[in-house]
Amino acid sequence: MATFPCISTVGMPDGGRSLRPPALSARHFGNETYLPSEVEKLLLGVVADGFRLHCCGPKAAPFALVASYQWKDYVDLVTIRRFDWITTARVCVSPSRRIDVFAPEAVVWAYQGPPQWALGALLQLVHPQHPHAPTTAYPAPVSLHIPQAEQRPMAIRFPPPGRASIRAARLAAAMATIGERAHYIRIGVNKS
């Protein structure tokens, strides 16, 4: 069974602020609490895609888990404050090239909901250069904001060197495949 850094709920009261999973969606083995397997699988997909992980707060009961993937003009973002409802987004990089992943100002795409849907939607979000990629900016959802007081202590886990570009390569390959299919469809339509 895979486990995530800083996600442990052993013996810590959540006070409504920690990442302690709700009782109905958590699996318990002895004193350990684990994520539901489908949520854990999706989070592993995010990690495998090359996201950087930020654990905000005490490792035993963090206030939030933030995962980010940097593009040239955007940052794909996952903000988890509760295991049963999370926010994913594609955040605009400011003209100064700075981005605060804990307080983004504008997004071009956001999804809030149960983890299976929100993480699945993010993993399927098209490459930023795809012709159908979202580009219209609007204010970032408040659920992406992590107050400074809840950011510390912080543990950061960088993707292994070979994993950092996985998402870009996977989405670029998908974009090329879609382009090839569209080309063949146009050829087929022109022949009719």
Secondary structure elements and pairings:
Blueprint lengths: L26 E3 L2 E3 L2 H12 L3 E5 L7 E7 L3 E9 L2 E8 L13 E8 L1 H10 L13 E2 L14 E4 L8 H26 L1
Antiparallel strand pairs: 1-2, 3-4, 3-9, 4-5, 5-6, 6-7, 7-8
List the helices and strands in order: EEHEEEEEHEEH
How many distinct domains? 1
Question: Whole-number radius of gyration?
Answer: 18 Å
By helix and strand content, what is the structural category? alpha+beta
The percent of residues in helical segments reads: 25-40%
Strand content range: 25-35%
Provide the residue-averaged pLDDT.
75
Low-confidence stretches: 1-29, 180-192
Main sheet overview: 7 strands, antiparallel
The shape, in one word, is: globular
Can you count the beta strands? 9
- Count of alpha/pi helices: 3
Q: CA-to-CA gap between the ends?
A: 54 Å
- Strand numbers in spatial order across the main sheet: 8-7-6-5-4-3-9
